[in-house]
Amino acid sequence: MKDSIFMKIIRGEVPAHRLYEDEKTLAFLTIQPESLGHTLVIPKIEVDKIYDLPDDYYQAMWATAKKVAQKLENFSGQRSLIKVIGTDVPHAHIHVFSASANYPKPPEIPMADDAELADVAAKLRTK
């Protein structure tokens, strides 16, 4: 796999506004923020999907995301939002950003049919 932009940031080859770092993770401000302080939390190993990380890196990422979310809430006075999308850069990462008055609300989604939920749950349990 070719190094992602995130590996170049980890090595210091590409500049970033670093907020937090430990032996397994790095948190830095994104250059495409959804709100002021929008931060990315990444593992210091090249793994595309967050659920493919070794358990210790997975847990370290969530611990770092928690620290960043708390700092961001203290900074912004707004609730911190966390999302994992995983389509823009082929390197596992967590977005941590502030909710704001302009943050788009999700569209109204109808309630699911209970029988359909039961069927899907049964199928997923056997996979």
What's the arrangement of secondary structure elements?
Blueprint: H1 5-10, E1 18-21, E2 25-29, E3 39-43, H2 55-76, E4 80-83, E5 94-98, H3 114-125
Antiparallel strand pairs: 1-2, 2-3, 3-5, 4-5
Poorly predicted sequence stretches spanning 5 or more consecutive residues: none
Q: What does the radius of gyration come to?
A: 17 Å
State the separation between the terminal residues, measured CA to CA.
29 Å
- Strand share of the residues? 15-25%
Number of strands: 5
Average pLDDT score: 92
Shape: globular
Number of helices: 3
Helix content: 25-40%
Secondary-structure-based class equals: alpha+beta
The largest β sheet comes out as: 5 strands, antiparallel
Order of helices and strands: HEEEHEEH
Main sheet: strand order: 1-2-3-5-4
Please give a structural write-up.
With 127 residues, the chain is an alpha+beta fold. The chain contains 3 helices and 5 strands; from the N terminus they run H-E-E-E-H-E-E-H. The protein has a 5-stranded antiparallel beta sheet, covered by helices on one side. Strand 1 (18-21) and strand 2 (25-29) form a beta hairpin. The longest helix has 22 residues, at 55-76. The chain is globular and about 50 Å long. The two termini are 29 Å apart.
Write a concise synopsis of the structure shown.
By secondary structure, this protein is of the alpha+beta class. The chain is built from 3 helices and 5 strands; from the N terminus they run αβββαββα.
